[in-house]
Predict the 3D structure of the following.
Amino acid sequence: DNDFRTRSGNTQYPPVHEGSGMPGIPKRALRPWCCQRWVTVSACLLALSGCRSGNPLTARYYNEGNSHFGRAEFDQSIGKYLEAVHAGATDGELFYNLATAYFQSGNLGQSILWYLRAKQVMPRDRDLMDNLEKARNARKDSFPAAKGNRLGSWWGQSLDRVTTREALSIEMAAFVLLIGLLLVMNLFPGRLMGRGATSSTLLVCVLFVCTVIVAGAKVRSDTHHEMAVVTAHETQGRNGPGEEFPVAFTVHVGTEVTILRKRGSWEQVQLPNGWTGWIRADGVEAV
């Protein structure tokens, strides 16, 4: 089942898979809330690839972190996962496991932060979205989203379901297809004439324009909207960048904000409901 579950001290963790000379791990190996289906093949491939960093140390740190997690040594597992990150690993599975370990250790802010970082790499992962929602439900603050039109909401949700790399790759593929079609039409004008060829060219042009729009919107969204998570237990938003300004609101750990601008040790942020204020930079961390 997919019910929310945390692991108690006497929970039996699945065994670590021994495989190709390097300690393997089941996919994720850490699902405290999601259905426990262990896919060892994909995990072994992940380990052999060095967590997609080119550094063999990342696979070692990753597996050591999973071993600590299996013994409910969450602080030690966090340390090993962070070593893998510092060694250059950028794998969504690693970020997912790190977020789960943070949640199990009681650090809600870092848990949501790393789930969001994992979401940037694998935005359509159902288990990730389930766990992120559970972590969000554990927050103290609840800000209703600012009202917007349905089309804008649908567009934003659609962009969230693709990565920037995916959007750019699709755009490039459409561009290559268009250039290839035009080249073939130029080389064989007699064979590719008529209504069918014109319709195909028009269709590919429309496809290319659509991919350009999607890729441009995705890049603009990533560069113009810097998301962040409140990592301090409690912090106050003020009407200006300084302690002398009056308090506008108070937020708690795990609240997601958008960074609008920075000034010294202060950052102006926007809450999900549209409120804006200045908070200390050491109280938030960018995704």
Remarks:
- The longest strand covers residues 256-263.
